[in-house]
Every structure is written in C-alpha cells, then in structure tokens.
Amino acid sequence: MKRILLLLMVMIPILTIHAQAPMAGGEWKDNTGRHINAHGGCIINYKGTYCWYGENRSSGNTLYSSKGVSCYTSKDLQNWTNKGVVLPVSNDTCSDIQEGCIIERPKVVYNKKTKEFVMWFHLELRGMGYKSARAGVAVSDTPLGPFRFVRSGRINAGILPKDFIEADTTELRQRLSEPAFNTWWTSPWYRQIERGMFMVRDLQGGQMARDMTIFIDDDGKAYHIYASEDNLTLHIAELTDDYLRHTGLYVRVAMGEQNEAPTIFKKDGVYWMITSGCTGWAPNAARLFRAKNIMGPWERLSNPCRGDGANKTFGAQGAYIFKIRKTKEKKMFDGADYVFMADMWRPKKITDSRYLWIPIRFEDGKPTLRANLLNTYQSSKSN
C-alpha cells in the first residue's frame, strides 16, 4: 500500500503537467526534449503517420538563419519524433539553395501517379534579401527524404493570367514609365496595380512568388497559391500532373489588397482561403475568402477569428490548414475536421518562434476560429 501511495504521489504531478499543457505560446518539445524547429510549415498524413515539415532555423540572424527543411513524425499529433533535416541547405556555391539563402513556407504533397513526395517552398537567393522572390521545388521517394533539389525560379514567364485582356498589356507597360505611377500608394497607382501594372512589369522574367501554399483538389489537380506582385496580389497557379511545373493557367486574386500567408481548404464543394495582411513579423487580423471554383471569382468576407485577440489572429500568422482523419485526434480538436496551423513569430530569435493550432468550426455557414478553443489541443510534449 505504501508503494502504491508513493507511486501515486509521483504520478499526480506528471499528469497535472500534461493536463495543463498549452495549445499556444509554450514550447512544443520533440522526443529529444527540444523545441520543435519546423516553422511556416505543413502537415500531411501518410499511411497513418502525420509528417510535420517546416523551416529549420538556427538561432542566428533572422533573414539568413535557414538550415533547410525539418521533418517530425507522430501517430497522435501529440508526441513528435525528430527525423532531422530532410532538405538541407547546400555547401555548393553554385546551388540556388546554398547556405545563406532563405527557405520559407515549405509545403509537401504526395503525388499518387508518380509515387513521389513533392516539396515547394519560397526561396530567396543568398545575399539578395527578399529581391529574388522565387519558388523552389524538390522531390523524394519517401516522406522522410532526403529530398533532391530540382530547381527554382519565378513563375509563368511570358504568360498572361486567365481572362487578361492582351490590349491592356501595352497600356500598362506605358504606365510603368510615367512619373505619376512611380510614386507608390497614391490612388492612381493603386488603380493601375489592381489592373495588373506589376504583373506586366514582371511578365518576361516571371511572376514573383513569396508566401505560399500548395492545395490538392478532389480530382488530384494541384495548385500553387502565392503572394506576388510585391506582395500586393495573390496568384493561384495550376501545376502539371507530376506537380513539378506550372501549366501556365493562373489567376490574380484580391488585386492590390496586400495578402500573404495563404492557407486553403475545401468543404462541401466550397473553397475557403484564410490569409493575413502584410505587416512584417507582427500579427494582424486574418482575412477570409470564399469561391465555388478555385479559379474564382473569390469573395472576401470578414475576419474569421472570434474572441480575445481576434484582431491580431491571437498573436499568430497562418501557415497551413490540415485535415484530421482519425476519430481520436478529432476529439482533441473539439470534433473539427480541419485545423488552422499558425506561427507565433519571434523575429529577434526566429528559431524560438511558437505554434498555434486552432480547430476550424463552422458558424452561419462560414469557418470560424474561436479564442475559447485555443486550449482544446493539449500536447504531452509542451511546457
């Protein structure tokens, strides 16, 4: 009896620590006891195992701290095993992903036709700051890599977006050289941005691609959604059947409205997209869009967040929306089918940035993110 009582005295504090584990703000530790280093990432479920991919950041300078892309695995979305860096930066000075580059927002998808895992990410070349605005792609035969870097570049060079009028191209190119349109943020400048002035500016070299995500539709078609035109306009671009290239079909969304960090999911035939505004590393109010066709038109709705901190997305910025397929895990998220995965950025020490996952609930036919559900998820590896 004394041994049983002693065992209970030891176990009760441990159980209490687990029960108090936060969903947001605390450290999320892996099997080695270290804070999970997978920022701006995504989660896929492959054969019953969750794979979490994200930016591996060192404790160094915010811009140039990229070490590649990490992967963690879990069977229950709580206990995470560190599988290391599955796409490391390169020591080759001729490589686009040489050490010193910036790799952000990695997204991995599985191609059922080619049996390959395809990773897309936002890439900035070494020493260029955020001027390169490229998309990079890598492939692997297994979810745990190693991923082989294929190439990087801007997107859809020489190709106009769907339904864009050819005659407008000449006029907008002329506008670019007029002094009145060299001054940013004026009303005339905004009108030309909405019409596509920056899209035309980048037409020959290819469109800029920064914050991004990848979405696989019900028919297996893949789409690349990214912030373009100096982060002023979103693009949704179709990928080829092997998910390695763009087909040339793309549309412009929310022209001139400054959206980044796109996340997307589909439910009951409707496409939903949650984005953020452009305020650097600081959080802002999330934005919600809806469409019946992924190629638009897209309708902007109100902020999907509700409760304390809703005007700043609870201190976070969206990274990905993943679907839960297991009943046990759904119970952890208040029975929700989808989870909004976000980052609580710490720009002075980017590797110590924290995570926030929120179950997506539908109210009045629209997805909502509620503050009172922030503690639904309790990770046994959190503090």
TrEMBL record:
Tree of life domain: Bacteria
InterPro entries reported in the protein's UniProt record: Glyco_hydro_43, Glyco_hydro_beta-prop_sf
Keywords carried by this UniProt record: Glycosidase, Hydrolase
CDD domains, sorted: GH43_CtGH43-like (cd18825)
Annotated GO biological process: carbohydrate metabolic process
Pfam families recorded: Glyco_hydro_43 (PF04616)
GO molecular function, one term: hydrolase activity, hydrolyzing O-glycosyl compounds
Keyword Hydrolase appears in the UniProt entry: yes
Keyword Hydrolase in annotation: yes
Protein family per UniProt: Belongs to the glycosyl hydrolase 43 family.
Record's protein name: Glycosyl hydrolases family 43
Species: Prevotella jejuni
